[in-house]
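Exercise: predict the structure of this protein bound to 6-O-phosphono-alpha-D-glucopyranose.
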Amino acid sequence: MAYIQNTDACFDRGAGHRNDWVKTAYSKALIQTESIAQTLGQLMKRGQLPILTLPGEEEDLKEIEQLPLVTGDDYDHVVVVGIGGSSLGAQVLASIGPKTHPVLHFWDTLDYHVMAPHLTGNNLARTAFLLISKSGSTPEILAQSLLVVEALNKFGGKEAVSRQVLVICEPGSNPLGRIADKWGIKRLDHNPDVGGRYSVFSVVGALPAILAGIDMRMVRRGAKEVLDNTFRTVDAAPRVGAALHHALHEIAGVSMNVMMPYSKQLEPMTHWFRQLWAESIGKEGRGTTPLNALGPIDQHSQLQLWLDGPNDKFFTLIINNEQDTSPLMDVGLASNDEALDYLKDHHISEVVQAEASATAETLAMRGKFLRRMEIGKLDERTLGALLMHFMLETIFACYLLGVNPFDQPAVEDGKRLTKMYLKGKA
Ligand SMILES: O=P(O)(O)OC[C@H]1O[C@H](O)[C@H](O)[C@@H](O)[C@@H]1O
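Solution:
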């Protein structure tokens, strides 16, 4: 497996803690994951869960790889216009992409000062735009798409619009699709059965990732290893994680789910996971709140509360054990100051790893609920494995709680009101 999960600290929290309660509740939840796995397996067999069959496919990748945007060298910049599930997964994959040309930009903001540099000036001729919206009706994306079409039309007419823009949305009629049809923009289909926040392995994540130089086959391979293992083994990591989280929520008052990688490259994953978890589990008055953090930065920000505040959190520390290529630290540069001796002859990654282990131990010593996820190398296979892990863990956790992991009914009200405000009818 591309990562190792260690949950020992949740079960052995020292004298004075109700370790046996945790163990009993956890074992019960873990047994329940068996019937959930069976249900998911049946849905997969009936082709009703493409998010879980995608990792085993390849044909769609071949099509993506043949797109002129991928094969050509026409652009210095590619702007990915999408929000939520139509952007966050791609950002996770692109974060480890080795390619620096074309430069990828993610417009998951409506701040005009972020967008303006791409819409005006000399860059426009060498900038492609990838407009992504599953529904094709998200107000933010439609507003941005209109700006893109306007800028390109001014610069090179319909020909520039159809050449420099690509749309990903559901097939059939929807507002973004209609813009594409009107301007002769190529449309790629977003599978209607793949929910946005679960779409990272589909074209939505794959196209930007391939532009960033990511090997999507390896991403899917890592994902498939986790997937297959989860259906084969009761104590597979995603099932253990979901059962443990559920048990802690039920009997130990855990109400927050903290993800803290010790790797800047994994920071986008905390944002991706925040949406995945929040929209999947927060329903009908139930759910736990995702909290994203980054090590070691948040040791100097949130750690005090975590150690000394309420014991209401489940911590996931993701530790990258890879050694970087930084030079060994030369403490002689600081006039042989003894206070720096502990840094002597270490790489910078060793400092980070030491801090991660120290945080894990400090949390455990205080009786906090903590798991460690250790990776040996942050590459495509590992990233695919982690993404699949957290997708499955989320799905299992939702079923354990009795909520539907795949819908998000409550947010629709806000979208409806936004449109009414803009029409002046609210
Ligand atoms: O891809 P789109 O249809 O534009 O949706 C983008 C986002 O919109 C909403 O906020 C949904 O709650 C999200 O789940 C979704 O990812």
